Batch of 2 targets.
Target 1
Amino acid sequence: MTSLRLRAIRLISTTAFIALGAACAHHSANRVDPSLRGAEAINRQLQGSGTNAPKLDHLIPARDSQGSLPKLFEWTAVPGADSYSLGIWNEVDMLVWRHDGVTTTSFRPTDLELAPGTYFWTISALKDGEEIAASGLSAFVVRPPNP
């Protein structure tokens, strides 16, 4: 009987923990988090912010471009956005650089240093700190300098 009670308590605790986790995830669903990757990022990209979500596209560097370190990042404007957040990840899905609070549709990073390799960049459009649109991933390749 004691074993059965302990199992019931564990089951109730687990259910409460899962419910609490779901409530927390739902509450923060519209908060910008450019570090969100993997299944959650794919899910967000597939679902968007709703059926009428504004479109956010990469312009520079062009998708799958190859060359030296990008000196400029540029994207399409999102109506109603008051700022943008830009994130760059490496091939092993680690955030390597991020810049928040960009108020234009382009940005020239002065502190970005990337070794040769493949990288992915994303943009989030924000209004009052809430994400209203998110781009998909766009790859670019940094080549080693010519000798």
Target 2
Amino acid sequence: IAAQRYFNLIIKDIGAEWKDLARVLDFDQTQIKTIKANNSLDVNDQCAEMLHVQHNTKGKSFNKLELIKALYKANLAAVAEKINIDHEITQDPVRKILALARRKRKKDTASIKTVAFLELKHLFNILEKPPKMSSGSMTQEHREILRASRMLLARKCRDQISPIWEYLLEAEILTFYHKQVIESKSTAFEKVRTLLNILPERGDRAFDEFCNAVTYCEITVENFNSGLGSILQESEISRKEETAMQNAMNPNQDGNSGSKINRQQSTDTTEYLFDVADKLQEDWIKLVPKLDREGKIDIKKIQNKSNDHFDRGFSFLDEWHGIYGKSATKYKLKVALKVIKRADVADEIGI
């Protein structure tokens, strides 16, 4: 889908922030100054010229996905989401009719019943209609690669999860139903995990298209599509590089002990939350009375949001860190793990 069809929407919404988008699109400062000089003080005209220069330079390669990716990088996510909504309306006949009916309702109150009917029909289509399946099935090797690389991918993809699912939507691996399921998750980690859980059931093209999406979003996961051995090897290499760097910072320590001591000296608790939730699984609930003694966290809300043990555990730890702030220390987390008799988790991840 050509990016040009969305230019008017962008021009209307981003105003003076067009310069941020221009920088992401590799415009240099001289080009930006020239565009400003050509269009006096009218930021809309400046934005329009910048977009048309990009279109004339890149041609068909400057498509909807490239545009969405650039908007997210320029911290213009709200505009990117408007493009998504417009895309859904033009692709879904019910959404298109509904949009027209809503416009009509402003002048004709008799159309309210029509709008209500269409809203119910669309809701039924989204929630009840089973998504179409791709042909074939994902190979067992590819399933194992996704499973083995889950944590690595969650860390590397969390900041680009929106462009990734947009790519897979365009490639017809995901449906709008899947998009809504992923968007319903509250954290980037949960969104990546949900995507990885969906992919194995999306047919024989799902793995290759996911690899293409990762490459397209400029996420470096070396040898990802070369087999299970490669991805496990990269995970091990990353661990060794981190250990070596930490040992270099503290030459008096060596080996794993040096790694653990240096991690302990770090003040950032967030780097452990994902690993703790992943290792604890259903035991996460045992941490609640130890870490949330003031009862500030709504546990029922967390439990109602997801049936997955990891999702629940990570949501709890993430809220604990956000609510308690500086008092949510690694020391407290380590002590709590020991009290619930899961010191093995603290030892394994080096708290």
